[in-house]
Structures are given as structure tokens and as C-alpha cells.
Amino acid sequence: MLAGRYLRSRRKEAFVSVIAGFSFLGIMLGVATLIVVMAVMNGFRTELLDRILGLNGHLIVNPIDGPLTDYAKLSDRLVTVDGVELAIPLIEGQALVSGNVGSGGGALVRGIREKDIKSVSTISDGIEVGTLDGFDQGEGVAVGFRLANNLGLNLGDEIKLISPDGDVTAFGTTPRVKSYPVNAIFNIGMSEYDSSFVFMPLEESQLYFNKEGRVDVIDIYVDDPDAVDEYRKPIEDSAERLLYLTDWRSRNAQLTSALDVERNVMFMILTLIILVAALNIISGLIMLVKDKAHDIAILRTMGTSRASVMRIFMITGSAIGIVGTLFGFGLGVLVSKNIKAIQDFVTWLTGSNPWDPTVRFLSDIPARMDATETVSIVLMALVISFLATLFPAWRAASLDPVEALRYE
Fold first, then answer.
1. CB-side exposure of 192: number of CA atoms within 13 Å?
2. Sorting pLDDT into bands at 50, 70 and 90, what band is 19?
3. What is the end-to-end Cα distance of the chain in Å, rounded?
């Protein structure tokens, strides 16, 4: 009852109530901001790695003892390993591309079988126009929609590929130039891939890059990408030949470490908002204790214990932290769950897209809340709010009623 009365605004304690209000707003906004930012960073990391791993295997098989001429049988043996979902033979090469408009540019050309490109959901689910049916039988290619837009290509148009590794003549190696019809246009949702990838039938790519009867690598997709080390020994045993395996973590070590460092730093920086709000709780309670010194002294002379006085002011300060944390939790969850709608509203309001996919990796702002992380943020805010009440409550409990009432 007393703690509630101290929190209610009166004319004499209006300034204390204002500080309490700002403390409440600070904790609420701090918790909400921390939840939203961590959800966006988690979503960005998850989406980025999913898109990267959607086009690149979790493990990549590179030959040691000779070229991969037995890729068909080898891939069939690899998929029998427990936990291996796909084993995809690939040809990889770089080429200059040109279309109907623009000066063209570079592209990464991948040769892949029809059954394999259909099994990679990142590509097959992202087909916007055209089809992958008959991919092996034709000489058509699949291109990213940003690359198609840059070159002015539509379904059925021809894209010209120029490779420096062409035919060997008496006058040297001549570049290989060939045009292919566009049979499919895909949208992965990652601007870097959508603007640079071209998929070609495996046999045609072997002819184009002078790699008849062999492939460059075999991409392996597993059930649990975080446990790739557990698959190394079974894969090497089933291969029945010398292989060199590289996993997605080593190939993306700089990216994943940068994301982790940025995530931890942002968590520490945004926690300062909650600490500043906690300092407001301390200052507000100290002023309240000073203002209520006369009341505390009377309560003590009536028999109220030090623990009861301390408990009154701890409840007063903790109430601000608890209510602010709960409101911040609700606000953070609301924003995180509706981040796409907020992005669309800001785009409509400003007339420009604040999340330009041509500048950033992803097309939309991703947000993925982690239950454990969200609970830890809420608990941290509650603990900080509780600790902020200890010193002012101790000061109130330590007040000497004789000194407080000496001049009354």
C-alpha cells in the first residue's frame, strides 16, 4: 500500500513521479529495442546463412588422386551415408555475359543435373518464370532475375556467354562465345546471387568449359549443418578414394565471426539503455527517501522494522522495473512479429525503400526471435531493476528516527 502511494503522483512529489515515469519509459524502450535488434540480427544471420548454404553444400568434395570422372557413382555412394541428403556434382566457371541491353558483366556459371537443381529448394522454389522441366535435354539456362533485368532478358531471349578458356589453335587459345536461350528466371532473395548466377545443364557445361567426362566438385548437403565434423569420416570411408573435404564454416569463417562479434557488441551497447534507466530509478528513489525522511522516522517510532522500510522502497523501485520490462517485452514482440508490415509502411510513407536489396544482401528485413535470448533479456532487465533499488532502500532503512525528528 505504501509503495503504491509513493508511486502515485502528488503535487509535492511531482518531480519524483516524473523521474519514475522517465525510468519506466527508459526500461520499456531499452527492453523493446534490445529484443527487436537481437531478433533482426538473429534473422539476418539465419537468412544469410540459409541463402548461402542453399546454393552451396555443407561439405564440398575436392579430388586429390585424380579428376572426378566417376562423379555419378561417387555421388550415389555418398547419398547412402546416414545423414547425407544430397550429393550434387558441379562444374563451376566464370564467364562474361551480355544480353539485349547494357554492357554486360561477369557471372558465375554452374553446370548441374536436372534432378539436382530441382532438389535444391532454394532454386526450385524461387523460379519466377519458366520451368526446369527438360533442363538436361535442352541447351537453355536458368538465370537470376536481377541479372536478367540488368541485361534486359525475358523468357526465351538469348544470353551470350564468353569464356577465356576456349579452343586451342595454332595462334593460341581463342575465347569461346556461345548464346543460350533463357528457359527459367529465379529469385533467391539474395541480391548478390540473383545478379551473378547462371545455371547450365551439366553435360553442356562440360563441353563449354572443356571438362568432358568430369566435374570440379561434389556438393554435399547434410541433415545437421552444425555437426559437419561428424560426417567427415563416414563420407571419406564411403568414397573409396582420396578426397579433400571443406565445410561451410571454414569457407565462411570471416562472415560468421563478423556476425557474432557484431551481435555481441550490439547487445552490450543496447544494454546501456537499461542501465541508464536503472540509474534513473536510483536517483528517483534517493530523492523519494530524502523527501519521506519524516514519514520513515514516524513509522520507525511506531515499531516498523528496518526490513519493512527497506521492503517498501524495494517494492517501489522494482515495480517500475517490472512494469517497464513487461511493457517493453510486449512492444518488442509486437514490432518483431510485424517487421515486414512496418517496413512496407515506412516505404509507403517515405516513398522509398529503406531496405534497398541492391545495396544489402537480402530483399527484406528478417526477424527471428529466440525464446532463450528473449527470456534472458527480460531476466536481465528485472535483475538490473532490482539491484538499482538496493542502495536507496538501504539508505531508507538506515535512517535514524531521532536525527530525522530532532528539529520537528
1. 7
2. confident
3. 26
- In sequence order, what are the residues at sequence separation of 6 or more whose Cβ sits closer than 8 angstroms to the Cβ of residue 185? 127, 128, 129, 130, 142, 143, 144, 145, 148, 153, 155
Query: 167 or 254: which carries more pLDDT confidence?
Result: 254
Name all contacts of 13-16 with Cβ < 8 Å and 24+ positions apart: 13/288, 13/291, 15/287, 16/284, 16/287, 16/288, 16/291
CA trace torsion 77, 83, 85, 86 (10° rounding): -40
The mean pLDDT value for 131-152 works out to 88
Q: Examine the pLDDT at 360 and tell me if it is beyond 80.
A: no
**pTM to 2 decimal places:** 0.66
Q: Under DSSP, is residue 219 helix (H, G, I), strand (E, B) or coil?
A: strand
Q: What integer pLDDT is reported at residue 293 of this predicted model?
A: 75
Quote the cell numbers at residue 118. 530441382
C-alpha cell at 335: 514490432
Contacts of 396 (CB under 8 A, 6+ apart): 289, 292, 296, 309, 310, 312, 313
Can you say whether residue 26 is alpha, beta or left, with left for phi > 0 and alpha for psi between -120 and 50 degrees? alpha
Q: Which three cell numbers, joined as nine digits, stand for 189?
A: 532473395
Under 8 Å between Cβ of 381 and 328: yes
* Cβ 41 vs Cβ 268: under 8 Å: no
Beta strand pairing call for 105-112 and 197-201: parallel
What are residue 108's DSSP bridge partners?
94, 197
Residues of the chain with pLDDT > 70: what percent? Answer: 89
What pLDDT is stored for residue 215 in this prediction? 92
- If we measure between CA atoms, which residue out of 384, 386, 376 comes closest to residue 267? 376
